[in-house]
Design a protein that fits this description.
Elements: E1 7-12, H1 17-32, E2 36-40, E3 52-55, H2 57-63, E4 66-71, H3 73-83, E5 90-94, E6 104-105, H4 109-117, E7 121-126, E8 129-134, E9 139-144, E10 147-152, E11 159-165, E12 168-175, E13 177-181, H5 189-192, E14 204-210, E15 220-223, E16 228-232, E17 240-244, E18 247-252, E19 257-262, E20 267-272, H6 277-285
Parallel strand pairs: 1-2, 1-4, 2-3, 4-5, 5-6, 5-20
Antiparallel strand pairs: 7-20, 8-9, 8-19, 10-13, 10-17, 11-12, 11-16, 13-14, 14-15, 16-19, 17-18
Length: 307
């Protein structure tokens, strides 16, 4: 059964003039559709006499039926942190550069939003990760839709660290760090490290070394329910930090443990009904461009390939 979106929450990077422009178009459109509009309290854009309500983050999540994020994928990650754990669906309007997550363009924004309000949309659940940094006395915790990254901090020395999967020792790595990525994050930092592209529907996690010292230290894919543990090997001048979706969780010190598991909740993304993941890959990764002038739009014919 389709969800009914009656209260729509908006968020975005208000310092971007393109985001403000889109919000000024979208707010009256939603009001004309007889929807209640609430804004992230961080948005100070004025809408004259239009009946919009600014709410703190907790109230925003509690009262909204749908969260619309206007911006790039960074904005989507921020919005997901607001919505995570509350079962609040997330719709992305792309005003950024790539748009793997925010997949509605501004030229089609009003028409696509109208379709969603009319119940013509696709709902997708995306795996997330929980990272726990344990120093033996207290635990810092965060969730990630894209990735959890262990990286060097304020040092020119490479890191030596161990990985354990489900309590079983895997390897001791030397390099700049490690990206632990969801299928969503497989097209982000992990991809630049030579990691595989994982379809969002795959229940898996990718471990991708960052600039490994040993050429045989290759990406590893494990099941979504694997318990991943990372331990830093003690050396002089070794400092590292843990990043969850671009935000610092804390410093990992020798003797501490970083544990990464599947989060107890999924991210819920709302897409246009004709959403096509592979079309997004072709567009964003420029697949097939300059390939003898052939049309790579996908005719289903296999193409007329010369031999």
């Amino acid at each position: 059964m389709k969800r009914e979106f009656r209260t729509i929450a908006l968020t975005g990077k208000q310092t971007d003039a393109r985001v403000e422009e889109s919000m000024r178009l979208l707010v009256p459109h939603l009001l004309e559709a007889d929807r209640r509009v609430v804004l992230d309290e961080a948005i100070s854009i004025e809408f004259n006499d239009l009946p919009v309500t600014r709410l703190d983050r907790q109230s925003l999540v509690d009262e909204a039926d749908l969260l619309v994020a206007i911006g790039g994928d960074g904005t989507m990650l921020y919005a997901n942190r607001l919505a995570a754990g509350a079962g609040l669906p997330l719709l992305g309007i792309n005003r950024g550069r790539l748009g793997f997550l925010a997949d509605i363009g501004t030229d089609e924004m009003l028409a696509r939003v109208a379709e969603v309000l009319d119940g013509r949309y696709a709902e997708e659940h995306r795996l997330m990760l929980t990272a726990e940094l344990d120093d033996g006395q207290q635990t810092a915790q965060a969730i990630a839709l894209n990735d959890v990254v262990l990286q060097r901090r304020e040092t020119g020395r490479m890191l030596d660290f161990e990985t354990w999967i489900d309590g079983v020792y895997v390897n001791t790595h030397g390099g700049d760090g490690l990206v632990v990525a969801t299928p969503t994050g497989s097209t982000a930092y992990a991809l630049s490290g030579g990691g595989p592209i994982l379809h969002p529907g795959v229940g898996a996690i990718a471990l991708v070394p960052i600039c490994p010292h040993t050429l045989s230290d290759r990406p590893l894919v494990v099941g979504a329910d694997a318990v991943i543990e990372i331990r830093l090997v003690a050396h002089a001048d070794t400092r590292s930090e843990v990043i969850c979706d671009g935000r610092v969780l804390g410093e990992l010190l020798p003797g501490q443990r970083l544990t990464i598991t599947r989060a107890p909740c999924d991210a819920i993304l709302i897409h246009p009904r004709d959403h096509d993941y592979f079309r997004i890959l072709r567009s964003k990764l420029h697949w097939g461009r300059g390939n003898r002038g052939q049309d790579n739009s996908g005719s289903g014919q296999g193409g007329n390939r010369e031999r």
